[in-house]
Design brief:
Largest sheet: 3 strands, antiparallel
Number of helices: 25
Number of strands: 3
Oligomer: single chain
Strand order of the largest sheet: 1-2-3
Radius of gyration: 24 Å
Helix content: 55-70%
Shape: globular
Structural class: mainly alpha
Strand content: under 5%
Order of helices and strands: HHHEHEHEHHHHHHHHHHHHHHHHHHHH
Length: 513
């Protein structure tokens, strides 16, 4: 047993995870700490999590935009209306702080520790699956790229914060890893499907803008449900994967093949209902903010004819003075919280009307597509500082360290929508070629799992400007950036694997992690 444990620790997967852990520890846990300053989003999480601002951060300047928040006061749980699957992570961090002796303050590094553990677990699952499908060179490249990309400060800085973006990242990676594991010949069990569905539910519930992803994941579950629900070893009473062993349900002989399909349909239905519920039950206050941003920070921003646009949207032309303004901006000609404006937005504007407007105004649409392509290259909001107050750094300082991936993308990746759309087309063409070559149900299912990545990317590319205009665009495109990076990783790994197969045809078939 000890020898087996040591062999796993010193395996390629173990060493890769250790390297990722080391980089994250240096950034997140050893001073000067790297994090991300609050832009005002933390409060809705704090109200529901029994947290308040650091009592030593007394001024607006101390709390927002310039310095990361390391400490949060522990207070009685409030009555916040914010609902998110991110909240259990914050509650767990709060409980850990109390358990280890802090009755007054939460160190945000407890939150970072949970995110770090989730990231390492997801990467380990991906690497273990890749070892059974990739050539050695391609598997090594996958490990290097996972470390290079997801320990980059553009992602890691979010861990030391209360933003919902890192929860979305973790749950997406876990959903993909578990789905790929399930699709492999060792993972076709109802238990594995439940883990995929659970990870998908966590992803959909992490942020309101993730709601449309539920429809994609519902289709994925239906696809996975078509796989054989049990194997011959199941009939013999065996357990085939570590994930299965963790499920507290005894697998029994004679599970009918239709079981997997029915379970998948049930899980898909729950995901679809959850997506609809998140969209329909969005708090009125947040809905008004998003409608304002989608019109005045989106459609009317840089519009040559704002009066005409307002007329076509069914709004009074007097609101032209608000074109290009942000909901949280002070000193506007008409207050953003004006009751007449709020009523006009709720009565006349919806995300579907905004989408229809862009569909019939191609110049407006192309402008937003190009701005989104530029903003979505990297996930580092340039207006939010990375250091805590007292670290000896100036207000709003951005760390130049650990930006090996985001820095390279910022310099070399084109910010043109046409170029990025061309890359998506080439990726999908490569996917289609591999799908035609796929041999066996498992290889085909793994390929279908990877199709989730561009599907989520497309949704997360258009949802931000439809739902919130250009407000905080780079941050709202976070999950698009994740998917773009995953597509770059899979393209590179696929290329190396295919090259190795030309030289050594005996390597494993398939190229998927």
């Amino acid at each position: 047993m000890r020898r087996r444990w040591l062999s796993q620790v010193f395996s390629w997967e173990g060493l890769t995870i250790a390297a990722a852990a080391a980089v994250l520890i240096i950034q997140l846990f050893i001073p000067p700490l790297i994090g991300l300053a609050d832009n005002g989003d933390f409060e809705r999480v704090m109200r529901t999590s029994g947290l308040d601002y650091d009592p030593n951060a007394l001024t607006h300047r101390d709390r927002f935009f310039g310095y990361m928040s390391r400490w949060f006061a522990l207070v009685p749980f409030g009555h916040g209306a914010y609902v998110s699957t991110q909240l259990p992570i914050i509650w767990l961090a709060r409980g850990m702080a109390v358990l280890f002796g802090s009755q007054a303050l939460l160190d945000v590094r407890y939150v970072a520790g949970i995110y770090t553990a989730l990231l390492l677990a997801a990467c380990f699952l991906l690497l273990r699956s890749a070892g059974q499908a990739l050539s050695r060179a391609a598997a090594v490249l996958l490990g290097i790229l996972l470390v290079l990309v997801f320990t980059d400060v553009g992602y890691a800085a979010y861990f030391n914060s209360l933003y919902g973006e890192p929860a979305s990242l973790m749950f997406l990676l876990l959903t993909l890893a578990l789905a790929l594991r399930f699709a492999h010949r060792e993972g076709r069990t109802p238990g594995g499907l439940l883990f995929v569905a659970a990870a998908g539910l966590l992803l959909v519930g992490a942020k309101v803008q993730n709601a449309p992803i539920g429809l994609v994941l519902a289709l994925l579950l239906l696809r996975l449900g078509r796989l054989q629900a049990s194997r011959s070893s199941t009939a013999a009473g065996g357990l085939s994967t570590d994930v299965d062993r963790a499920l507290p349900v005894r697998r029994m002989k004679g599970i009918r093949h239709g079981c997997g399909s029915r379970l998948a349909a049930a899980c898909a239905g729950v995901l679809a209902l959850m997506s609809a519920g998140i969209f329909l039950l969005d708090a009125k206050e947040i809905r008004v903010i998003n409608l304002y941003q989608s019109v005045f920070t989106g459609i009317l921003k840089d519009s040559p004819l704002p009066e005409r646009d307002l007329e076509q949207l069914g709004l009074d032309a007097r609101y032209t003075v608000l074109a290009g303004t942000d909901y949280f901006q002070s000193g506007t000609a008409i207050p953003q919280r004006d009751p007449d404006l709020t009523h006009a937005l709720l009565s006349n504007i919806s995300v579907f009307k905004v989408a229809s407007f862009y569909a019939t105004h191609p110049q407006h649409l192309l402008d937003k597509l190009n701005k989104s392509a530029q903003a979505g290259k990297v996930s580092r909001p340039g207006y939010l500082g990375n250091y805590e107050r007292g670290a000896g750094k100036e207000y709003g300082a951005i760390t130049p360290s650990f930006d090996w991936w985001s820095g390279a993308k910022q310099r070399w990746l084109p910010g043109s929508f046409a170029v990025q759309a061309s890359f998506f087309g080439l990726w999908l063409a490569g996917w289609g070629l591999e799908r035609l070559r796929a041999k066996g149900k498992a290889a085909a299912a793994q390929l279908d799992v990877l199709l989730v990545i561009p599907a989520v990317a497309v949704l997360q590319f258009v949802v931000p400007f439809l739902g919130s205009g250009e407000a905080d665009l780079s941050k709202h495109l976070f999950l698009f950036t994740v998917c773009l990076d995953l597509m770059l990783i899979t393209a590179a790994v696929w290329g190396v694997h295919r090259l190795v197969r030309r030289v050594r045809p005996a390597v494993p078939s398939g190229w998927l992690p």
